[in-house]
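Let us walk through a complete example step by step. Step one is to write down the protein sequence. Step two is to encode the small molecule, pyridoxal-5'-phosphate, as a SMILES string so that its atoms and bonds are unambiguous. Step three, shown after the inputs, is the structure prediction itself.
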Amino acid sequence: MAKTDIVFNTRCKKTPPQSLGLFTAETAARTAAFHKTFHSYTPTPLACLSDTAKHFGAGGIFVKDESFRFGLNAFKGLGGSFCLGRYMAEKLGRDIDGLTYAELVNPRTKTAVGDITFVTATDGNHGRGIAWAAKEFGQKAVVYMPKGSAAERLENIRKLGAHAEITNVNYDDTVRFAKQQADKNGWVLVQDTAWEGYEQIPTWIMQGYLTMAAEAVEQLGDKKPTHIFLQAGVGAMAGAVAAYMRSVYGFDVKIVVVEPDKADCFYQTVKAGDGQIHTVGGALDTIMAGLACGEPCTIAWELLEYAADAFISMEDKVAADGMRILSSPLGDDDRVTSGESGASGFGAVAEILKNHLQIKQSLGLDENSTVLCFSTEGATDVENYRNIVWYGKYADE
Ligand SMILES: Cc1ncc(COP(=O)(O)O)c(C=O)c1O
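Step three: the predicted structure of the complex.
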């Protein structure tokens, strides 16, 4: 049994924030229409784990497999490309509706908007998405990564032509550094988290994630989920997807946010219950690199405070077990290659169903439940993936 704590959100469903209107089914349709113009666009698969669900005593488990997204091995390119598209649209005096990939990659567009350098901080996946989108649109990218970032993730960003380097500080301080560099050099900060006074660009990034959620809803068809598990770093993905799911399914579905116990800023915020955001500092030392963020995105918190039912804080082993189970499916189930952050949502589901009867009951998880998870990345650090999946790292001693 691995350490898994849950806190229920007493503010859920109370006061709808204004930002809710920015993440509706209608927004998702516009975002998806933009992404569909990309030559490399194809919906990612929705893995069906019927035998695994039966084994654990659930009705059904579905896992959206983002390792297939744009050849980038993670969902984050959706946010990066939509944000850069919106930014370029504004420069062109155009609306994003009707602006296509073909026009954005056309050298005439580059001439019209001029040279832009986009800068960001990243645990890996967001920076790779920005580097890719900037390259596609003929622009420059500068990417900073926190101390301890995997060499493979750094190299994958450099391969896309971006200037990328690892700093000596944690994720949240790296974000501050990227902002300073943007201010100093006249670069455009494209950060996937918001704070007071910096909201427009993160909103566009969050709207970009809706394509993933809308695909999942379409693929599920009439199999309505009863539970959705969403992993959170700064919470931008969870916030956007949770808000969108409320616009599609209302409050019929339970939405659970999952975090590593070393970087559980949302869990701590809800646990404190004083309406204030609570941050987590220090090394944020978790294998779930994409979730190693101690300061919530302000827009995400606003959305999750209204839209999320519960928050889970869990140890690394839960994600590692999730990776192993997904890599080695039962019966006819689809196989999913999922990285440490990618497998965390599913890992939480498996851990609760197997080992935490009280949490299972409190969430109403049973043989009638249909669970939706998002494997938000593939094996983005192959060496660590093998150490975990092949050699049993972070398993029971
Ligand atoms: C694979 C993966 N999953 C989930 C997340 C969490 O997204 P957010 O930071 O928006 O909460 C990230 C963030 O980098 C990620 O890389």
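Step four is interpretation. The chain has a mean pLDDT of 97.
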